[in-house]
Write a structure and sequence with these properties.
Elements (H helix, E strand, L loop, with lengths): L1 E4 L2 E4 L4 E7 L1 H4 L4 E6 L6 E6 L5 E3 L7 E6 L4 E6 L8 E7 L10 E6 L1
Parallel strand pairs: 2-10
Antiparallel strand pairs: 1-3, 3-8, 4-5, 4-9, 5-6, 7-8, 9-10
């Protein structure tokens, strides 16, 4: 129902593009979002986007990350540029507010 991919190991300053394939029932909900959970910390919202393309960002990623969606393909994206070690986390996609199913997420590790 929710399959995030595209994570990996990257050096500080590098870029990654995450993708999330969702079932139509989940993707049809107006607002989708990317979340992340760093070790020992709570899961937090990183960015959100409406079906119409209106996006919002957390302060820590504003200006570096870009969220987008392809409604025809039921796919959500997160372009992450200028990555920092503090961006290291497992990244998840879900509705806003989230469903109970999170999927495995995708690990992003940024080395200094």
């Amino acid at each position: 129902q929710l399959q995030a991919s595209g994570g990996g190991l990257v050096q500080s300053g590098g870029s990654l593009r995450l993708s999330c394939a969702a079932s139509e029932s989940i993707f049809s909900i107006n607002v989708m979002g990317w979340y992340r959970q760093a070790p020992g910390k709570q899961r937090v919202v990183v960015a959100t986007i409406t079906r119409g393309g209106r996006a919002t960002y957390g302060d820590s990623v504003k200006g570096r990350f870009t969220i987008s969606r392809d409604n025809a393909k039921n796919t959500l994206y997160l372009q992450m540029d200028s990555l920092r070690p503090e961006d290291t986390a497992v990244y998840y996609c879900n509705n806003i507010p989230p469903t109970n199913y999170w999927g495995p997420g995708t690990q992003v590790t940024v080395s200094s």
